[in-house]
Amino acid sequence: MSTAKSTKRSPLSVHLLSLVYFLVVFGLVWVPFGIKKTIPLYEEWYFAYVVDVAPLKAIVLQSTRPIFLWPYLIAHLLTPDSFAGMNLLLMTIFILKAVFVYRLVRHFIPNNSFLAFMTATLCVIYPADMGLLSFRALSYHAALLLAIMAIYFFVVGWNKKQPKRYWVIIWPLQLIILGTYEALYPVIFAAPVLLLWQEKTFTRPVRDAARKWLALPSLLLLLTAASVLFGVGGYINDQIDLTQKKEGTELIEEYADSVEHMYSAHLQGWSDTLKEWDWDSSYTRLALLAGIITAVVSWFHLSSNPTRLETQYQRRQDIWLLLAGLSIMLLAFLAFIPSPFNHHTFRVFYATSIGAALVVSTLMSVMARTKYIGRLLAILVASTAVTLATFHMLKQHEFFADTSEDVGYLYAKIMEEAPSIHPNVTLFVIDENDQYQDEWHLASHSVPFQGGLRYLYKEEVSAKICVMDFPRVSKICEFRDDGIYFLDNNAQGEGVIPYDRAIVFRTTWNGGVELLEEIPSEYLDGRHIDNYDPHALIDDVAVPERTFTSLAVCWPPEKCEQLIPDEPQGALILEFDERIRGFGWEYPNYDPTHLWMTNEVVSIHSWLAADRDLPIQFKVTIALDNAVLQQLKLAVNGDPVALTLEPRPDGYYFTGMIPQATLARNLTSTTLLFSVDRLIVPAELGLGADERHLGLQFDSLTIGYTCWPSSLCEHLAQNAPQDSLVVEFDQPVNGLGWESPSTETSNLWMTNTVATLQSWLAADQDLPIRFRIGMTLAPDVLESLKLTVNGDPITLSYETRSDGYYFSGTIPQSALMREPNHTMLMFFVNRLVVPAEAGFGADERHLGLLFDSLEIGN
After folding, report:
1. Residue 458 gets which letter from DSSP?
2. Spatial distance between the Cα atoms of 308 and 302, rounded to a whole number of angstroms
3. Separation of alpha carbons 146 and 152, rounded Å
4. CB 674 within 8 A of CB 618
5. What are the tens digits of pLDDT across the range 54-67?
6. Do the bridges between strand 696-703 and strand 614-623 make them parallel or antiparallel, or are there none, so unpaired?
């Protein structure tokens, strides 16, 4: 007798609470990004183009997956001119998958809603894979959802004596599932085992239901096998060819290793999430919110089920559930074992995570039956699991959103430079910086790249993306006398485009592209080409409207190198020990505490408040050539910023001042561009075997009102306004442009023409200021000294005494009131002096005035 028949139906409130939970928690994954920021990254561009201009192709794409594109067609119909439809469809699939898994588990284990609730939740957000939020997987997700639905209707239909209406639903679902994704054949063929689980015996009705269930999949499997035998199975034939070249023992070892890898990856996913956990991340707060909601809903589920003592039946049921979960993992992975993707975390975890979720949820359910603390322990574990899984999904979504900015910026720059191109013209992008060769950045594959342009232009444009030599995955472009040759990885020609029918872009240091006005000499080995004129092939018209609606970038594209804070910041500190917001840097590898410039121009993106001048100081640790160091230049929002260099034993210290007017040029972001005149290969200088092209190695940077180095300044922050201030200059101060204390002096030198002090003085009255300068290296430097407080000039007088120069003045209340939350003192001199050059010893530093003490207030 069916288990489901003998139990009471669950309260409606439990079902509704679970549904609301799925809507809220899965919706949190989109909260920081919205439904427009993430866009296609690889072959989805081609799919978008197909369903846009030729939707019938979405019905017959290839023999083994004839209707693979139907989810993309639905997304396109939802929002034809943007990719919000893909986001909405993926979100809907996640929610429906959880709903049907929940209902399916409740059908077999009706008295344990907590088990069903946690299995349904974790099967969607299980942290085992980095491809769950990729639009490449939209068809995989959709096919899996329909498979769960078909199985649900199959077992529910059996429970209702299989009325015909259920087969009217099941057979079309099977047709769509297996016509979309052949990897689900093992899961579909194993589904009749669920009836055997219910009935505990293989009766004639069970056999009849199994035959009906297997009839259509068996026919489709024969058609798939026939297409493979006749050589029209597409990449399946390629997989078989690769398999036939391997020996049997090698295959057995490889397959066994792939299964072990699959199981271990579901455990490793949790540890990987713990490693990336960041308490300072905004995603942490969302993940913790998901965990709190999970705790509340888990308590509701556990309270709705009466706690029972452990029984032999329950222990046996738990064992069967664990075995079922492990079996589901293997069945879902079975089709991948002989494929080249059997170690690839992108493809193999969409269905296996259902089994893993069942295993983890069963263990939580066992915890809940432990005496005394069982329920509390289960709630705690469930909340922690969902918190970690949600954080993992948010970080994964961040990766795809950031990658979307890269790809969107590439397309946006092309559309800006060439809003309309003539027919029979080929557009080339030379990926000089290898920015688009991985599988998440177009993989330098011309078919999806061209599909994206055709979607945006709404025209049949021809386009190629390539490199000049040594491709990882892309094709090669070779510039010869008669045109541009497009070659495969074996240097076999795939066509030639004359120069008078070519428009050539190349990638730039900041992730975009630039239109080449002429073919660079390095492409031509010194030859000269006369018939290349890209502007003759470009019409100066309005940028196609779809560019604005579909690309998740602002306009013009220069403003779209996003990676900036959500609000303006008063200060910025970078330690160069992790990925930074910018381009042209080597990510940490052998030395995780520094970053090299790997381009002649590198950028840092932030958003600095434009309410005052901001001091900047940064440290360069290694310069391979002193001439490169001397040529370092900085521009902020396009304006050059003067820098002062001071060599010290531990590196090269640069200081400068970013004017308020420069920051105000862009009120929504701040772009710093560091440039050198050339790069150097260490191996060519005999400095080891490093063959990279490198500039300078950066160690740290600070902008704003912090002392230097920043690691020594945490104790200087004030939490409340003060009536007075005393500075003895015998230790680090909260400001920039000062020499750090040494054992030889109890004073601080100005090491920049502008030195700052930050404090927080009460603005309730005028305040007297007095300070002493112990030494000056030139009389004109002392005479040039000026002081501003919060930007207001302060009138100073001084007298010379035997122990130094005593300055005094008054800070008016109006100056203090300009900035109610802090007080900025800025000391200015006209120049710096090198003591060695002035005949004062061997000190070669650039110095201003030596400050001994300062007092503000009564």
Report:
1. T
2. 11
3. 10
4. no
5. 777 655 556 678 88
6. antiparallel
Question: What are the C-alpha distances in Å from 379 to residues 259, 321, 365, 388?
Answer: 31, 20, 10, 14
- List Cβ<8 Å contacts ≥24 apart for 197-202: 197/108, 198/2, 198/3, 198/4, 198/108, 198/155, 198/158, 198/159, 199/1, 199/2
Neighbour count for residue 666 (Cβ, 10 Å): 17
Q: Where are the alpha helices (DSSP H) in 81-192?
A: 84-108, 113-125, 138-159, 164-180, 185-190
Judge whether 777 and 851 are in contact, CB under 8 Å: no
SS3 letters for 251-277? Answer: HHHHHHHHHHHHHHHHHHHHHHHHHHC
- The β-bridge partners of 466 are 430, 475
Side-chain half-sphere of 459: how many Cα atoms within 13 Å? 15
Phi, psi of 166 (to 5 degrees): -70, -35
**What phi and psi, each to the nearest 5 degrees, are found at residue 109?**
-125, 75
Encoding tokens for residue 271? 């540890």
How far apart CA 540 and CA 419 sit, in angstroms, is 7
CB count in 10 Å sphere of residue 286: 20
CA–CA separation, 182 and 174 (whole Å)? 11
Decide if pLDDT at 808 tops 90: yes
CA distance linking residue 587 with residue 446, whole number of Å: 27
Q: Tell me the two tokens of residue 842.
A: 């061997």
Cα–Cα nearest to 576, from 705, 476, 736, 698 = 698
Sign of CA dihedral 132, 138, 143, 145: positive
Residue that the structure tokens 């009255």 belong to: 765
How many residues are there in the chain? 858
Q: What phi, psi does 74 have (nearest 5°)?
A: -65, -45
Q: CB–CB of 274/388 below 8 Å?
A: yes
Contact 838, 778 (CB under 8 A): yes
Task: Show the 3-state SS of 115-139.
Answer: HHHHHHHHHHHCCCCCCCCCHHHHH
Residue 813, token pair as written in the block = 């209340």
Q: Which two tokens stand for residue 532?
A: 């290349």
Q: Which tokens sit at 371?
A: 């005496």
> 824: alpha, beta or left, given left = phi > 0 and alpha = psi -120 to 50?
beta
* Centroid of chain to Cα 740: 38
Give the predicted TM-score (pTM) of the model: 0.66
Residues 725-783 pLDDT 10s: 999 888 878 777 787 645 556 788 888 777 888 888 988 899 999 999 999 999 999 99
Measured distance CA(351)–CA(329) in Å, rounded: 7
With beta carbons less than 8 A apart as the criterion, state whether 405 and 563 touch: yes
Q: What whole-number distance in Å separates Cα of residue 473 and Cα of residue 470?
A: 9
The pair of structure tokens assigned to 227 is 């297409």
Please name the residues in contact with 97: beta carbons below 8 A apart, sequence gap of 6 or more: 120, 123, 124, 141, 144, 145, 148
- With residues binned 3-state (H G I as helix, E B as strand, rest as coil), the percentages for the chain, rounded to 5, are 45, 20, 35
Decide if 385 contacts 360 (C-beta within 8 A): yes
DSSP string, 1-46: --GGGGSPPPPHHHHHHHHHHHHHHHHHTTTTTTTTS----STHHH
The widest CA-to-CA distance across the chain, in whole angstroms, is 113
**pLDDT tens per residue, range 179-223:** 998 889 999 999 999 988 877 777 888 888 899 999 999 999 898
In contact, 846 and 751? CB cutoff 8 Å: yes
Where does residue 439 rank: exposed (0-12), middle (13-18), buried (19+ CB within 10 A)? middle
